[in-house]
# Entry
Amino acid sequence: MTDTRSSTTLPGRLHVRTRDWPALVSVAAGMAAVVWAANLLVRRIAGLSAPPYDLAFFQQVVWNVGANGQWISSFSGGSFLGVHFSPILVIPAVLERLMWADARVLSLSHAVTIGALVPAAFLLIRATLKPSRAAGPLAAGLAITIPWWGSMQEVIRSDFHPEAAGVVLALFAGWAGLTGRPRVMWGLAALALATREDVAYGVAIVGLLVAVRGRGRMRQHGRAMIAVALAWAVIVFGILMPWIRQGAVGDTDGYYAWLGGGLNVLSAPFTMTEAVAAALTRSGSWFVVGGMVISLVGLPLLRPRWALLTLPPLAALLLSANSFQAGIRLQYPLILVVPLLVAAALGGRRAIAAANRLRRRRRGHRPERALGARFPRRHARRLSPLLPLLLALPAVAGAWVQGSLPPFDLGDPSFLARPPAIDRLRLVAAAVPSSARLLVDEGLVAPLADRSSIGRLAGSTPAPDAYVLIDRLAWSPTWRLERRQAQLVDRLERSADRPILADDGRFVLWGPQTVAGSP
# Structure
């Protein structure tokens, strides 16, 4: 029988079915998300209102890796790999070395990652739902909303984090496993594991999905992936990162110190029951999780055993002393994305099966074996174009309710009203020797992080040997920092022991303190 569906044959034997509109919609939605996120993030840096953490931190690590091969930064002692094991940062380091050493490269790559979540989730969900004819429309409806989730708005706001790419790679690895591509699956999984140590959990989840839903020998590959991911996590967390730190205290060690540290964490639920229960029942955090579930139309709840796989990383977030982590803000929702999407995909299978059973009972039809034959073609043609739009409504409503970025934010974020000034800033900063210590305002740290030593003023008295660069129109995340910055500028302008090296009317650069009696 001849396939009459329209198609286009491109060079290189690439065959594109133009009737596969769910895939085209997903790609288009992903590209729109890239443009939207890139515009917001680049404008924020250009307007000198990007927070220094964690963008400046990653930018300086990437710059050091590309410039001298060292995994170091001015924001923490020792090797960065002892804080977060992200060897994949070699890739942006090479790109910046060959093309453009600028924090905007990381922002652009982050925007691409946000957009790539859409086709990655689409492919995984569709592969899980097949052979149902509703697989494409349902997968598209769930995937195209991801960049607009309230929690994903926080991820975008967090600027660059390599684990976002890890989530995308893990989803693609799951798709490859479900569609019988073992080499592709293992290659993508290896890259995902290289993004950050905790991405191993997402890789293990997609390995479990392949082990349950894969065909033939792919189930063995899925079980092997689970073992590899867990072994990788044990080796990296328990052996490799402590060895790299060489006894130094990591930035994240204090997050769980209140539980007693070490093995005392296991007994904390019994010895500190009230405190642990209070942490695990934070209403604001569960509001975020509820928004993610609602954005997936509640489908994870149809497969409760799979949805329970969300609880281990969720408990780790809630028990942290870091307010951003416990509140599931900024980049921290990422660890929940893979288990929720997998549970939603399997919940979608159950929803389709339930709908088919209800339809058969109403029509008196006999049960059929093939899931793909249970959804009549004429109904699929009528409803499939509307399905993505209907599924998008909860996610868009959640973006409004939970608070997010434009166009969903009703307010006018300050960074959109700030004119671009990054080129003007770099021109003034060029007077500072590349090896010198430079202290700058909050919004200037990330744009100037491509140097060996940089720090933020934060209202403190600068070191005598440091260069100081301030912005008379400085952005400050809090009114307290804004007040301290104004007091510091006043002291600097009154001081006679720091020479002014440059002043273009907005940016002022002071040199190191001069020794009394020196020329």
Q: What stands out?
A: The radius of gyration is 26 Å.
